[in-house]
Amino acid sequence: MHRDQAWAAVDDYFTAELVQEDQALRDTAAGDVRSTAPGIAVSAPQGKLLALLAEMIGARRVLEFGTLAGYSTLWLARAVGPTGQVLSLELQEQNAAVARQSLAAAGVGDRVEIRVGPAVETSAALVAERPDPFDLVFIDADKPNNPTYLEATMALTRPGSVIVLDNVTRQGRVADPDSSAPDAVGVRTALRMVAEDPRLDATALQTVGVKGWDGFALIYRRS
Ligand code: SAH
Ligand code: DHB
Ligand code: MG
After folding, report:
1. What pLDDT is recorded for position 101?
2. pLDDT band at 133 (very low <50, low <70, confident <90, very high)
């Protein structure tokens, strides 16, 4: 078995044994064929990790950058419970429409709001609204804008908030000083901001699985 196939098979095993996606999650995942970027949603085990993190910290308010077809959104919406709220920022109206339909079908439409537009703009508008702080933020949109999204996140969170930054390995480009690829630079700059911000503490983990080689940073806002 090729390495990538083995990674996928183990993810499938973990999913069957522990994650136990129901029909609504499977339908939402499948809906991504109608999105602008099929195949890049979090995996089932990763979605459940987001949900467990949210539940562990008792998150009531979650902010997401990058909705796609609403798969990670559904995990988070379930985790915040019927009185919680998820706000997800998405560039493409097509994706927002697919996600809204799946989230409504899953019975969580009332606790999710999707705002369409470039997240640099929608997050700035959100900061200007001075909303109650978000307990958990999942940054998973266009990688070159990660620094801007992290900056907005600092204006939208509180001590104790948790931030997850997705897709930090970039096929190794993140650690290649010769790579000036915009996605790698976006990740690197955001991680440097985290390292230099005394309010934040973090680690990053590489992952393998159905999505191949990937990784995420887990960031804790301490003050
Ligand atoms: N969080 C989703 C996957 C998101 S994929 C999940 O795991 O299920 C990345 C998403 O970011 C795509 O839907 C893409 O349209 C969106 N995106 C790309 N550029 C963006 C921008 N400038 N502003 C907001 N969203 C953007
Ligand atoms: C990409 C984006 C994602 O959010 C992801 O989970 C995987 C890949 C990408 O743009 O390549
Ligand atoms: Mg991602």
Report:
1. 98
2. very high
* Cα 65 to Cα 142: distance, rounded to the nearest angstrom: 9
In this predicted model, what pLDDT tens digit does every residue of 161-204 receive, in sequence order? 999 999 999 999 999 999 999 999 999 999 999 999 999 999 99
The confidence score (pLDDT) of residue 1 equals 82
Q: Residue 203: give its domain's CATH number.
A: 3.40.50.150
pTM exceeds 0.85, yes or no: yes
Contacts of 41 (CB under 8 A, 6+ apart): 29, 32, 47, 68, 69, 71, 72
**CA atoms of 150 and 7, how far apart (whole Å):** 31
| Most informative mutation of 91, 102, 183, 211 for ligand 1 (most atoms within 8 A of CB) | 91
Q: Tell me the two tokens of residue 8.
A: 């996928």
Gap from CA of 83 to ligand 2 centroid (Å)? 30
The residue segments making up the domain with residue 122 are 3-221
CA of 18 to the centre of ligand 1 (A): 27
- Strand ordering across the sheet containing 200-209: 112-116, 85-90, 61-65, 136-139, 162-166, 212-221, 200-209
Is any atom of ligand 1 closer than 6 Å to the C-beta of 141? yes
Cα–Cα dist 164/177, whole Å: 24
Average pLDDT on 79-104 reads 99
Domain count within the chain: 1
Can you tell me the distance from the alpha carbon of 8 to that of 29, in angstroms, rounded to the nearest whole number? 16
